[in-house]
Amino acid sequence: MPDDKPASDETILATLSQITRQHGTPAYAYDQRRIRLQAEKLRTQLPESIELFYSLKANASLGICDILSDCGLGADVASAGELVTAMAAGFPPSRIFVAGPYKSPETVSLLHSLPEAIISIDSPSELGMLTCEDVRNPAVLRLRPDFDSSAVVTAGSDSRFGVPAEWLPDCKNILADGGIDVIGFHVFAGSQVLDAAEVVRHLHSAMELSLRTADTLGIELEFVNLGGGFGTPYAANDEELDLAPIAEELERLVQRAAPARVALELGRYFVAQAGWYLTSVIGHQTHQGRPAVIVDGGTHQRADLCGIGLRCNAIPPVVLGASASPLSEKDVLGCLSLPADVLAQSAQLPSLVTGDVLAFANAGAYGLWSSPAMFHGSPLPTEIAFDGETIDVMRHPQPASSILDAQNHVTQRASVTQTQ
Q1: How far apart, in whole angstroms, are the C-alpha atoms of residue 293 and residue 280?
Q2: Pure H helices in 46-160
Q3: Would you say 273 and 34 are in contact if contact means Cβ atoms under 8 Å apart?
Q4: Cβ proximity of 15 and 389 under 8 Å
Q5: Exposed, middle or buried: residue 377 (CB in 10 Å: 0-12, 13-18, 19+)?
Q6: Do residues 34 and 62 make contact, with C-beta atoms less than 8 angstroms apart?
Q7: Which of helix, strand or coil describes residue 272?
């Protein structure tokens, strides 16, 4: 049984140093203990009846999914790839929630073999398509919020996702013909919300919308996914999200929706703070008049997909094993032939020499899995999970030739030239 206490900062940094010595850089390293503690925090502070789903879009590495499946969570997936990963990680089919605006033919085929999985339907056209495909899974309609979102990554009333109120009659007509069994609703207003009062407002408004729509469509509510969007502190002055008022509101919402099941989908909250992105200094440069270092990683492996402003707002990377020296402003530049490949700007860092390893914290969510990883024909970086001093390889380093896997020549001459 894993220890229920977080490792000390000194222990974590020592383990990260060991990882870089054994496996090199660039690499991602994930603290298993921190992931489990995040899951346990929600289990103990939120109402017991709340169902928790891990959103694989945040990080779909199989090892990460193994841990969260072992924690008893469900899986929120949005593609066939995420669905097969959830199945491989052992999430029970009845605890798999299949969302996203497009259900590919492969996804539909998998759904036929997973009749207990719940599907989220994004539009009347998708509802009609799934009806024609004879999909019999329990389903929810994703509703477009009729309230404003205060999330960093918004999905409010002007979102592209979900059924707007004016399309509900179309859904009602399709449902009247039978086929799809709609058991409830799905409302997601956005992610990365650190203000507990705003999380409460989102959840409350989502439940109100669901209850009203159930009356409009004459549906007996059995399941409602209220989204989530719980934020992670990335900047030095960010504070941890206060779960107490959120738990109080969820208790009220559970009672209002009873006997329906109430669920949340969360991604970064489980994994962001558990992850570290490790890169080595390979040279020196200047950037916009500031001294800078070049590292062997880059934004092709840690893109700022969610627009958080990581290069300017995130806490500076830790220099593993560095001796004390005065701090000064430096930029950290990636290894790409791309002007925007900047991992940190005006960061307070000590003197750096070639070979120093920089460890970027809070890198467990929307890192590798949301990045343009194949840019420059780059092989995927190593992925490591650690628990205390125990180190497990999740993804081995790949050679440059791995970029050719599953590719074929298109001319005979190329094939002949290669064999000569």
Answers
A1: 10
A2: 62-70, 80-89, 105-112, 124-132
A3: yes
A4: yes
A5: exposed
A6: no
A7: helix
CB 349 within 8 A of CB 360: no
Please list, in sequence order, all residues whose beta carbon lies within 8 angstroms of the beta carbon of residue 10, skipping any fewer than 6 positions away.
Answer: none
**The two structure tokens encoding residue 281:** 């200094």
**To which H or E segment does residue 318 belong?**
strand 318-320
CATH code, 46-266: 3.20.20.10
Residue with token string 């066939």? 80
Domain 274-404 has CATH 2.30.170.40: no
**pLDDT tens string 244-302:** 999 999 999 999 999 999 999 999 999 999 999 999 999 999 999 999 999 999 999 99
Token match 């001294």: residue? Answer: 291
Q: Supply the pLDDT for residue 1.
A: 42
Domains of the chain, by residue range, sit at: 46-266, 274-404
Q: pLDDT higher for 225 or 322?
A: 225
Q: Is the pTM of this model over 0.85?
A: yes
> Kind and range of the H or E element at 276?
strand 275-287
Q: What are phi and psi of 20, to 5 degrees?
A: -70, -35
